[in-house]
Amino acid sequence: PRDIDGDLTEILISEEQIHSRLAEMSRQIEADYAGKDLLLVGVLKGAVMVMADLARELHHPITMDWMAVSSYGSGTTSSGVVRILKDLDTDLTGRHVLIVEDIIDSGLTLSWLIANLNSRGPASVEICALLRKPDAARVEIDVKYAGFDIPNQFVVGYGLDYDEKYRNLRSVGVLAPHVYSSTSV
Ligand code: PRP
Ligand code: MN
Ligand code: MG
Prior knowledge:
transferase; nucleotide binding; guanine phosphoribosyltransferase activity; magnesium ion binding
């Protein structure tokens, strides 16, 4: 185990579980987009790991692009107002777009993003998210490809961060309260 494993109270989803679920989701995506070009849009930075693994699991021609977005204002809860820090390089006109996310928490980021991308004239916009927290949802999001529903706990790893750390963990774990409640770190 690595040093940072002491910062987790439990492993919620193992590396093996993530990869077998991504394989199942990939088979579904391949079937649904048969004969169609597919543009994967990853939302930086959390989606980096799921994008890398999903894209390599897909036996389907894809292109990849990235957006970086940020909620206005401070505080721990998302305001739902989003600004674009890095926009797509790709013209979405007539394209089949699949947004790739690590987690849907309140749903506010994705809700805004779906509307934004839909305004650009795509053929379709769908969502693929590895994790979803049903108990934290503030808006209803129609997620076509959802990996795991998880409890409303502070999770990190596989792209998910706390204070930009833990993104490189291979599994998804629950962050120990002493990590984020401490004021002396
Ligand atoms: C996290 C996560 C999702 C979003 C979900 O990103 O990666 O993108 O929050 O939250 P919501 O459903 O409540 O809108 P974050 O803003 O922390 O940026 P990051 O991906 O760079 O970590
Ligand atoms: Mn994110
Ligand atoms: Mg984050």
